[in-house]
């Protein structure tokens, strides 16, 4: 009877998984942290989505990239984090198909976030290093096409990685009551981490070098500028401020994801519910939660938009035309 009580499915003595045991205090701490983070992540990113979608002044190529990033972060807070809480339970009772679909959605959101960061880095690179051609090269339509293509690629790539698992859910489970998948790790690390992160770092190093040189040039000629020159300087300053703000977003992303992938490939215990797995997953959830917090501190338009949303002023006629910049 004691052995049956420790099984996920006591009626299946020979094929049922044994229940994992956790300290009650540790389990409650994980539940509280992840539940709070899930609610906060979904709520804040929903505010970003409503802000950029509703107010026409915010319909810019750069903000469209932030919108795409907010969508992926919103999905993390709404679906990925809550289902991860269920994975920490002693047994998985939702079935093999739900298990695979959870990982499928997780992979899509992670890959979409990485690709969005690459697009943001390219956007800032062109804006700072080739500002004269920025309006013609980075257009609204081109950014929309790139965002759609990258989301489609994220779905396709996730499907390819989980193809065997989707065709036959649960094929890698060793017993009833667990949620296990199998993917080709080396390919994923190269395509989803090494190449994109290297691209992001190279582009932002170049942006930083050019921004510093432009700042020095503006300081040396600031006393002799004409009115037309002053407008040009103002535009350059605004572009560099945008690059700095987005640089903070990219830096936080790199810190969270680099630690996540380092922990993933470290060879340590990465089974569901292990301290290593909980910590690495927490980094991904933390990044999705921090992005809108960064916007709140760095972008005045976001703070003003949130105020209009919370006070329901966006429900008034022509509220989309309100000046939020």
Care to describe what's here?
The chain contains eleven helices and no strands. The chain has helices at residues 2-5, 24-54, 61-87, 96-129, 134-137, 140-161, 163-167, 185-221, 227-264, 275-298, 300-310. Residues 226-235 have low confidence and may be disordered. It has a single domain (24-317), classed as Rhodopsin 7-helix transmembrane proteins (Rhopdopsin 7-helix transmembrane proteins), CATH 1.20.1070.10. The radius of gyration is 23 Å and the shape is globular. Helices cover 73% and strands 0% of the residues. It is mainly α.
Which oligomerization state do the chains in this entry correspond to? Answer: single chain
Q: Which residue ranges are poorly predicted, with pLDDT under 50 across at least 5 consecutive positions?
A: 226-235
> So how many helices?
11
Mean pLDDT: 80
Q: Note the beta-strand portion.
A: under 5%
Radius of gyration computed on alpha carbons? 23 Å
What is the number of domains? 1
Give me the CATH superfamily.
Rhodopsin 7-helix transmembrane proteins
CATH topology: Rhopdopsin 7-helix transmembrane proteins
State the CATH class.
Mainly Alpha
> What's the main sheet like?
none
| Percent helix range | over 70%
Tell me the overall shape: globular
| Secondary structure category | mainly alpha
The CATH architecture designation is Up-down Bundle
Number of strands: 0
- How many angstroms separate the termini? 67 Å
What is the H-and-E element order? HHHHHHHHHHH
Subcellular location: Cell membrane
Keywords: Cell membrane, G-protein coupled receptor, Membrane, Receptor, Transducer, Transmembrane, Transmembrane helix
Domain G-protein coupled receptors family 1 profile: 44-295
Family: Belongs to the G-protein coupled receptor 1 family.
């Amino acid at each position: 009877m004691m052995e049956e009580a420790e099984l996920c499915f006591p009626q299946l003595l020979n094929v049922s998984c044994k229940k994992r045991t956790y300290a009650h205090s540790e389990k409650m701490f994980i539940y509280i942290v992840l539940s709070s983070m899930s609610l906060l992540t979904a709520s804040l990113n929903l505010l970003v989505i409503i802000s950029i979608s509703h107010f026409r002044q915010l319909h810019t190529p750069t903000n469209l990239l932030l919108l795409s990033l907010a969508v992926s972060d919103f999905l993390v807070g709404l679906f990925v984090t809550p289902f991860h809480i269920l994975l920490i339970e002693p047994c998985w009772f939702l079935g093999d198909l739900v298990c695979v679909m959870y990982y499928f959605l997780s992979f899509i959101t992670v890959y979409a976030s990485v690709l969005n960061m690459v697009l943001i880095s390219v956007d800032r690179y062109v804006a700072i290093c080739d500002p004269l051609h920025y309006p013609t090269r980075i257009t609204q339509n081109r950014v929309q096409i790139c965002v759609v293509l990258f989301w489609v690629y994220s779905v396709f790539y996730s499907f390819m990685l989980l193809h065997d698992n989707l065709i036959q859910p649960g094929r890698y489970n060793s017993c009833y009551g667990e949620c296990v998948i199998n993917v080709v790790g080396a390919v994923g690390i190269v395509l989803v981490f090494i190449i994109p992160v290297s691209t992001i770092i190279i582009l932002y190093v170049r942006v930083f070098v050019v921004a510093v040189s432009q700042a020095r040039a503006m300081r040396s000629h600031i006393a002799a500028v004409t009115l037309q020159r002053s407008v040009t300087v103002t535009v350059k300053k605004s572009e560099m401020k945008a690059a700095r703000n987005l640089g903070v977003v990219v830096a936080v992303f790199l810190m969270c994801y680099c630690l996540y992938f380092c922990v993933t490939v470290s060879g340590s215990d990465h089974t569901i519910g292990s301290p290593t797995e909980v910590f690495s997953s927490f980094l991904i959830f933390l990044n999705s939660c921090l992005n809108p917090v960064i916007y709140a501190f760095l972008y005045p338009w976001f703070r003003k938009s949130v105020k209009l949303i919370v006070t329901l002023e966006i429900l008034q006629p022509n509220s989309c035309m309100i000046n939020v910049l």
